[in-house]
Structure formats: structure tokens, C-alpha cells
């Protein structure tokens, strides 16, 4: 009985990858909505998380369009998981900064536009991945979780969806599989 239930909810890898891609599109759309409609300016860590979502979405899109065999599905699943966990690591840093006592919050830095125009790329990347005092401010919550906390949840769900493709890569019953 359990096997039938699991088999009924099992998606093709292509559908699974496209679901992940559309999830990433949704997340990026929400970020744009909060920025352009809600007036919330993204901090360096927010932008880094958006880049993580974008990279994860690109992996999912390429995997869905490519529709590879079992070996390719596993490779894309690993890439998607790594991209999602990389973005999740940035989210963890962001949540950690938001929970620091006020006296331990790092100083606010210059705006990103200024940094991009006047700092070397290595310094810009360091700032984008370590955050500033701006990143410690909580502008929005839902059910007690800040936006970076919800983004962390989303990254973990994307990583899980990507890992599920290993299960989807197994051949089904009498279907032939491509390698």
C-alpha cells in the first residue's frame, strides 16, 4: 500500500526540475515585489541570497530543458542542491546577524552602488557575503520569521526537491531508462 502511494506522488525528473525553477521565479518575484512595491531596499546579504536563488533556478531550468538520463539527473540534482545550500548558508549568516545583540552588530557600510563603483571585486564580494549593519535590521516578518529566515526555509525546500531527483532517477517498473 505504501509503495502505491509513493509511486502516485512520484514526479518525472523533468517536472521536478521545472517545479524548482518556477519556485525560484516565484521567490525572485516576491523579492522584486517587496523592493519595488513595498519599498524595502535589499541589503548586501539579500542581494547575495537573490543571486543564490537565481543560480539554483538556472540549474533547475537547464536540467528541465535538457531532460537528461539517470546520470545527468543525478549530476543536476547535486548541482541544484549545492546551489541551494550555498544560498542557504548566506541566509544562515543573515539570520545570525539579525539575532546579534545591538552592541555586536557590525557597522553599516557604504551603499552597494558606491561599493561596486569604487572597490575592487574581491572587497565587494566580501561585503556582499559578510553583510553590514544594514543586514541586521528586520523590516518584515510573517508568523514570527524574518524574510531571511523564510528564504532559508525556501533554500532548504529547494535543496530537498533537488535531492528528490535521485529517487526520481530510478527506472520505473517496465519503463526503460536513458543513461
Automatic annotation (TrEMBL):
It comes from the Bacteria. InterPro entries: DiS_bond_form_DsbB/BdbC, Disulphide_bond_form_DsbB, DsbB, DsbB-like_sf. GO terms for cellular component: plasma membrane. One of its GO terms (molecular function) is electron transfer activity. Disulfide bonds join 43-46. Residues 34-51 are periplasmic. It is found in: Cell inner membrane; Cell membrane. GO terms for biological process: protein folding. Belongs to the DsbB family. Required for disulfide bond formation in some periplasmic proteins. Acts by oxidizing the DsbA protein. This is Disulfide bond formation protein B. It comes from Methylomicrobium album BG8.
